[in-house]
Amino acid sequence: MLKQIFIHSSFLVFLTAISFAQSDDSWFLLPEGLGVQNHLEYSFNVDTKREIFENWTNVDYMKGIFAAGFRFEAFQPNDPDPSISRGKVRYADIAYKYISLDIGDLDKGVKITAGNFYTLFGRGMILKSYEDRNIRIDNNLIGVKAEGHLYDFHLTALSGSAANSQNLRKDILHAVDISYRGLNFLKLGFTHAANLPEDESSSKTSLSSLRLEPTIWNFDFYFEFGIKQNPDIQRNVFDSEESIIGKGFYGNTNFYYGPLAITGEYKLYDNFAFTSSDGTIFYNTPPSLRKEYTYLLLNRHPSPLDQSNEKGFQIEVNYTLDDETNFQTSYGLTQTLPRSSYFQRVNGFDLETVTQFKEFFVQAYHSWNDEINTTLSLGYNEELSSNTKNLTPVFEGKYYFGEVNTLKLILEHQHTKNRITSEKYFSDVISIEYLRSPLFNVAWVSEIQTKEPEEGKTIRKVWSFVQFGYKISSHTDLSLLIGSRQAGNICIGGVCRFEPEFKGIEFKMLTRL
């Protein structure tokens, strides 16, 4: 263990020294068309004696109509959570590589990619192949993708395979997407995708959707409706009397009028999860209709997206009073589906509809002068998976001085009640940050949790850390965290990752050449 720590620490020092050595005056330029990016993360938990080392190196090259690249990954070791490591516990290899050919012009053209690739159709109702390292999602496909456009028609066709929880690529995904953008007031699109399981005796699962994007006056709309089919389920569950086994709908409306902006969204995802045959790969991630916050406690009780069993809506209103003042409010509700849903009938359930997630948020911002601005926020949510109700007021203040200096203070308080046990507890967070734009920042964050599991018995826990950030020229960002951090979920777009309690040191470095 000591040897590994020494090797990793030496590597960190070496990379940091190189970055500092390359100032604006001495920083070299790479050959035209070549790009290199390195993302390194290292942490050591003093309580568990566990270290995690992760590194991603991307190299991309473009020359005329040709492009190629690869990503070298090294995990020594990786995160112990198997849902994150996905078979790459101690791993060092080229995990992503591609070559592409792009022929044509703005009116007519074809691009062909072979190797690994990512793809998003529409807003992810059918296919969202992407990478997000914050939540450790990487469902890239390896295969062939062809993209063509002829004036206002755009076509994408692909065939590929994604890695499952053991980093094995077994199922094959075929997909096609066609769109038409020739009308000023309307865009049209159609998507079809099918997953072919490794077991040839099992039927394929296919999803198809139609999307419409009208624009009328100050309204922008987006509608997408999809169906799911699987011959085995249609035959075994519905006796071939129904042609589909699931459906999905997402609608979005944006309205703008002067200082007022209103966004409304609706969703219905009924047995619409599109997964590999073993269920460990999710091909689709439709809009979750969950608000993402910049504050710690407002994100403390999130609700993960369920592509098969939820319906709901979210409304957000923004109003700009003047250059100094604006307001924002939102309300969202997500419920499970009734007994008549495909989800319950396919799985043989007989459950009542319940509220899965409810949230309300209001915020007011005001700039008092060129030096001081404040933000007041209030959030409320009810969350089924933890059976909690949470009320969270937040104060944020910023003070600008000396043109490049900023002091920021954030105070958060959260009152939580368990709806089953009636237990109540409180959480408080204080964050003080100094920023010297754009080079340096340092922040101190402390959280106190107060519980009373039994009357008269109070238990308090405290977590505190200091985080430093430094930017070297325009090519390297450094971050160093020292201290302890509360456990909790990290959620982006309804996809969540649990982050255990941490006490130790965490270092991150992102370099772009």
Description:
The chain is mainly beta. The chain is 7% helix and 59% strand. It contains four helices and 30 strands. It has helices at residues 2-21, 82-85, 231-236, 342-347, and strands at 34-45, 50-63, 66-75, 91-104, 108-117, 119-120, 128-129, 131-132, 137-138, 141-150, 153-162, 172-180, 186-196, 205-216, 219-229, 246-257, 260-270, 309-320, 325-335, 355-367, 372-383, 388-401, 405-418, 424-436, 440-454, 457-472, 476-485, 488-492, 495-499, 502-512. The strands form four sheets. It has a 24-stranded antiparallel barrel. A two-stranded antiparallel sheet has the order 6-7. Strand 21 (372-383) and strand 22 form a beta hairpin. The radius of gyration is 25 Å and the shape is globular. Residues 1-14 have low confidence and may be disordered.
Task: Supply database-style keywords.
single chain, 513 residues, mainly beta, 24-stranded antiparallel beta barrel, 4 helices, 59% strand, globular, disordered N terminus
What secondary-structure arrangement, pairings included, does this model have?
Elements: H1 2-21, E1 34-45, E2 50-63, E3 66-75, H2 82-85, E4 91-104, E5 108-117, E6 119-120, E7 128-129, E8 131-132, E9 137-138, E10 141-150, E11 153-162, E12 172-180, E13 186-196, E14 205-216, E15 219-229, H3 231-236, E16 246-257, E17 260-270, E18 309-320, E19 325-335, H4 342-347, E20 355-367, E21 372-383, E22 388-401, E23 405-418, E24 424-436, E25 440-454, E26 457-472, E27 476-485, E28 488-492, E29 495-499, E30 502-512
Antiparallel strand pairs: 1-2, 1-30, 2-3, 3-4, 4-5, 5-10, 6-7, 8-9, 10-11, 11-12, 12-13, 13-14, 14-15, 15-16, 16-17, 17-18, 18-19, 19-20, 20-21, 21-22, 22-23, 23-24, 24-25, 25-26, 26-27, 27-30, 28-29
